[in-house]
Design a protein that fits this description.
This protein has helices at residues 5-16, 20-24, 41-49, 116-122, and strands at 27-29, 53-60, 63-67, 74-75, 81-82, 95-98, 102-103, 109-110, 128-132, 152-155. By secondary structure, the chain is of the alpha/beta class. A 6-stranded mixed β-sheet has the order 3-2-1-6-9-10, sandwiched between helices. A two-stranded antiparallel ribbon has the order 4-5. The longest helix is centred in the N-terminal third of the chain and has 12 residues, at 5-16.
């Protein structure tokens, strides 16, 4: 459990805002932070303040489909809040922020075991940034052929 999750999350979003990938992006796909992941409410507020469009993942037939938040978030298949807005073409995304249980410094990620992000990222040409806490950075993770690395990781 991350004791100072909110404080460290705010620092993470401040650091993110200095990256060229963020500065140049207008449509940013993020995620809804669940236990052990950065708090994303403060990120969503930052995106609004910075005039960027927020896109979130929605599970459809085992695949991640990017969508606008809509009027409300609803519990998805894995009890992770999902957007209710219209779907967005993956080609429209300027930046994808990626969660994980763990990352290596060179972008290998350990997800929740469904391969959903690997399948999605394989179709995505936008820059990718993995977001995590220092405790989630490890020296080594098992890598399979279908695994897709993120372009960079940002650590709080």
């Amino acid at each position: 459990l991350i004791d100072d999750r909110l404080l460290r999350s705010v620092q993470l979003w401040s650091d993110l805002a200095t990256l060229p990938e963020y500065v140049s992006a207008s449509m940013v796909m993020a995620f809804v932070g669940v236990e052990g992941e950065p708090d994303t409410d403060t990120l969503f507020a930052k995106l609004r303040r910075d005039g960027k469009s927020l896109v979130l993942p929605r599970m459809v037939d085992g695949m991640i489909r990017p969508a606008l938040p809509g009027d409300a978030l609803i519990a998805g298949p894995h009890n992770i809040p999902e957007p209710t807005g219209v779907e967005v073409d993956v080609a429209e995304l300027d930046l994808v922020l990626v969660p994980a249980l763990a990352f290596t410094s060179d972008g290998v990620r350990l997800g929740r075991g469904g391969g959903h992000y690997d399948r999605f990222l394989a179709l995505c040409s936008a820059p990718t940034i993995g977001l995590c806490f220092a405790e989630q950075v490890v020296d080594e993770l098992p890598v399979e052929l279908h695994d897709v690395r993120v372009g960079r990781i940002l650590v709080a």
